[in-house]
Amino acid sequence: xxxxxxxxxxGNCYKIKLLLELLQIEHEWKHVDILAGETHTEQFLAKxxxxxxxxxxxxxxxxxxxxxxxxxxxxxxxxxxxxxGIERARVLQWQFFEQYSHEPYIAVARYxxxxxxxxxxxxxxxxxxxxxxxxxxxxxxxSWRKLPFWLAHHQPxxxxxCLPTPRWPxxxxxxxxxxxxxxxxxxxxxxxxxxSA
Length: 197
What we know:
Blueprint: E1 2-6, H1 11-22, E2 27-31, H2 42-45, E3 55-59, E4 62-65, H3 67-75, H4 85-115, H5 123-146, H6 148-154, H7 157-161, H8 170-173, E5 180-183, E6 186-189, E7 192-195
Parallel strand pairs: 1-2
Antiparallel strand pairs: 1-3, 3-4, 5-6, 6-7
Helix pairs in contact: 1-3, 4-5
């Protein structure tokens, strides 16, 4: 059985949880407190020398880190990851977008606010991230509206790769209008899981 080391409130960890739940893959979740230094323990570093979460432990001797690498590994053979060609390249395109145009703004601002509690010495950095974050959300909104097949038919990885937070901001939620229903403490919106409040 897979074991994921992570923090469910981290977007990079949450998207792993999201895909595991959607694929109904049995797994164990082990919470890692990054603020308490748990990623720097000898035990954790044996799993990931980069000292970051998430980490997917596949078996006793095999671990995989980097959230998008984990997504691609888990999705292999499922409709979430196209087999080849331009569709697979578009999945990679969105994953690279997430790492270079989304995460540096949205995830970092969220970390400063939620995890660090908005310390005075990082307020300017937090505010500086807003323009880039709004631009990323705008690109996602416009692009995904032009590519309805991504949302309606293939249910690809890019959408989970770009999850900004476990609780959707209104602007992102408007991208995924649809019927919702409860699912064991989660909500499903157009087949995308979001944590219940």
